[in-house]
Design a protein that fits this description.
Number of domains of chain A: 3
Radius of gyration of chain A: 26 Å
Number of helices of chain A: 4
CATH topology of the largest domain in chain A: Immunoglobulin-like
Number of domains of chain B: 3
Helix content of chain B: under 10%
Radius of gyration of chain B: 37 Å
Order of helices and strands of chain B: HEEEEEEEEEEEEEEEEEEEEEEEEE
CATH architecture of the largest domain in chain A: Sandwich
Strand order of the largest sheet of chain A: 1-2-3-4
Number of helices of chain B: 1
Shape of chain A: globular
Helix content of chain A: 10-25%
Number of strands of chain B: 25
Oligomer: heterodimer
Strand content of chain B: over 45%
Number of strands of chain A: 19
Largest sheet of chain A: 4 strands, antiparallel
Distance between the termini of chain B: 134 Å
Structural class of chain A: mainly beta
Chain lengths: ~375, ~290
């Protein structure tokens, strides 16, 4: 009896493992345009690229490898470190033979949620709805030599053998150019700009402490990724520090704490920000759009865009940021968009965009 | 009975006389690193202890003779106690040892990097020590000199309680300034990097034009005293045209920053370095 039981449980375990390992994938023909899009992205979520590809219309002229790279990312971009989390679809128009489906994709990434909105054309082919997938063209940079002879700074720090009076290399001087506290979404936001006034690169962090009416420290936060942490000489970066759940009326003052550290750094790559303009996106939200141009010869894997918005008096009224989920290939423009609060759009008089970059093949 | 009483009295008196003769006589003036002698009186043998700051010297001595202390033995300046242990008694005397002649300096110069032409921005503090690292409390002249690219400013300050300090303005010329403190034959050198200040009179011009883009570059970027602003400094070029705004954070290279901006029929190009604005160019329109 016990032998029968053990065989039974062994089989049960194998069956359960099998059930757990086999994910739900569907390749059944879609009966509606929205269904085709949903089924395709369900398979993408499950990393069943072949099943997802079965919903792609042959007229798309895209092969499985490129389709997979479009959705899973390439060149160690942010997309390669992300997971499709949610898909919402809406049919914009539809007739017997084709339809346009607005698809909002939500990816979870290491740096927060990333959104992608696509208007997908869906066509009826052989009785089934298929998605016309516009494949991203692989950028082929023509063979060339791009001379990069920018400066880099190395630092020799004070060592244990040095005379006690010998001074260490001084930390860079910073200057907070502006600071503007405001309330938004039930919290306090402190934003402004900081400059590396020095002639050496600085690793910068900006912290702030809210002091309540009794003179006690109520909260302490830093700008985390809402600033550029490595500032080259005379570089200006915005910063934004969020204090959720706090009210300005309960505060007496703010204590700012800019910190700097001398770090080795390189002056490249140079990333140009071209054709910046404020527009409405497909969902009707106000965004600052533009293109990033990597002027160096190396791939920039994860670009991070920081936008500073000013009112007519030059005051910083909003700081917004966004990660671009595509890598920046040398000399190839890459579009970007960062949010701007709709209610502020009319107050924005000017803006400035700076770009952080994270590159895998860079040593510093 | 009477002679016995007299004998006891004589012995006691003799003992008292002998014992009261045990004395230690430290020097009136002792200097660390210099030989000195400690006088003793009495008869017989004893042990001399010299207890000073962080140092103890022990000697077997013949009472009545002077004890020589060698130059390298008396190292610590400050308050010493000489104790003579002999015949069950321990007479003692306090004496002071002064620090020797200045033999070493500790020199703190701040900051290590400073913009040119700033008043009273460099400070130097020298701490004067003798060869045994005793703080030299006697007033000592310390000469501070700050030289860069052939120009030198110097100032002599007399130390007080072992410290001498000076405040100096940075020079108008950029470079590695040699900041030297000198006391007697000893000197210590520090380097204060004097760097260019904010750019002055920042100007751009169009360098090259092709269908893809227009290259703009700055004139050599210098500060208000004519020093070249260091390479690697960020210079922001901004172009505003009908397609929006384009910016390039260019780096100074060999004193010049260069950026390629998109080709445009009509555009305004501005330049800035930190908080300093440069000139404005109008392309394709009235200047």
């Amino acid at each position: 009896m016990s032998r029968v039981l053990s065989i039974f449980f062994a089989l049960l375990i194998v069956a359960l493992i099998g059930v757990g390992a086999v994910h739900k994938s569907s390749t059944a023909p879609a009966s509606s345009p929205e269904g085709a899009v949903q089924s395709m992205f369900d398979d993408v979520k499950a990393h069943d690229w072949k099943a997802a590809y079965s919903y792609v219309a042959p007229s798309s002229n895209v092969d499985l490898v490129n389709f997979q790279r479009d959705l899973a990312g390439r060149n160690s971009s942010l997309r390669t470190y992300s997971q499709l989390e949610g898909v919402s679809t809406r049919v914009l128009h539809e007739n017997d033979g084709e339809a346009l489906v607005r698809t909002e994709l939500k990816y979870s990434t290491a740096v927060g949620a990333s959104f992608d909105t696509r208007d997908l054309k869906v066509v009826k082919e052989a009785g089934a709805w298929k998605v016309v997938w516009k494949g991203e063209k692989d950028v082929n940079v023509p063979p060339q030599v791009i001379p990069v002879n920018y400066l880099r700074w190395d630092v020799i720090y004070r060592g244990p053998g040095d005379d006690w009076g010998a001074q260490n290399a001084e930390n860079p001087r910073l200057r907070i150019l502006s600071m503007n506290p405001t309330e938004h979404d039930g919290g306090i936001i402190i934003m402004g700009e900081i400059e590396n006034e020095d002639t050496v690169p600085a690793f910068v962090s900006v912290g702030a402490t809210l002091v309540d009416k009794n003179g006690r420290d109520a909260a302490e936060e830093t700008s985390f990724d809402k600033t550029s942490h490595v500032l080259l000489p005379k570089e200006i970066s915005p910063y934004r520090i969020d204090f959720p759940g706090m009210k300005l009326a309960n505060m007496k003052s703010v204590r700012m704490k800019p910190d700097s550290m001398l770090v080795p750094a390189a002056a490249d790559p140079v990333i140009g920000v071209l054709h910046q303009r404020i527009e409405k996106d497909a969902r009707g939200r106000t965004v600052l759009k533009g293109e990033l141009l990597n002027e160096s010869g190396q791939i920039v894997n994860i670009p991070h865009v920081l936008a500073t918005f000013y009112d007519a008096s030059g005051r910083v009224i909003w700081v917004s940021d966004g990660y671009v989920d595509h890598a920046l290939m040398p000399q190839e423009p890459q579009p970007f968009a960062v949010d701007l609060r709709d209610e502020l759009a009319s107050s924005v008089h000017s803006y400035r965009v700076t770009v952080n970059q994270y590159s895998l093949n860079r040593s510093e | 009975m009477r002679p016995l009483r007299f004998a006891v009295l004589a012995v006691t008196l003799g003992w008292l006389l002998t014992s009261s003769a045990q004395e230690v006589r430290p020097p009136q003036y002792a200097v660390a690193g210099h030989p000195t002698t400690i006088g003793t009186s009495g008869e017989g043998e004893g042990t001399l202890y010299l207890v000073g700051p962080g140092q103890v010297i022990k000697r077997h001595v013949r009472l009545g003779s002077d004890v020589a202390i060698a130059a390298n033995e008396l190292g610590s300046a400050g308050r010493w106690i000489a104790i003579l242990r002999a015949g069950g008694r321990s007479p003692s005397q306090v004496f002071f040892v002064q620090s020797g002649t200045p033999e070493s300096l500790s020199f703190l110069a701040r900051p290590s990097r400073v913009p040119v032409a700033r008043p009273s921005v460099i400070s130097g503090i020298a701490v004067v020590f003798d060869k045994f690292q005793n703080l030299v409390l006697q007033p000592t002249p310390v000469k501070f000199s700050l030289s860069v690219e052939g120009t030198e400013i110097s100032q002599t300050v007399t130390s007080r309680n072992g410290l001498a300090w000076v405040n100096s303005s940075s020079a108008r010329k950029a470079g590695a300034a040699q900041f030297v403190a000198r006391a007697g034959d000893t000197s210590v050198r520090r380097v204060v990097q004097q760097v260019a200040s904010d750019p002055c009179n920042l100007r751009i011009h169009m360098a090259q034009r092709n269908p893809v883009g227009v290259a703009f570059e700055t004139d050599p970027v210098r500060d208000c005293t004519g020093n070249p602003v260091p390479d690697g400094t960020i210079v922001t070029f901004t172009q505003s045209d009908s397609r929006g705004r384009s910016t390039v954070d260019a780096r100074l290279k060999k004193g010049i920053a260069r950026a390629i901006l998109p080709a445009s029929d009509k555009a305004i190009i501005t330049v800035a370095c930190g908080v300093v604005l440069g000139n404005e160019l109008h392309l394709g329109g009235a200047r």
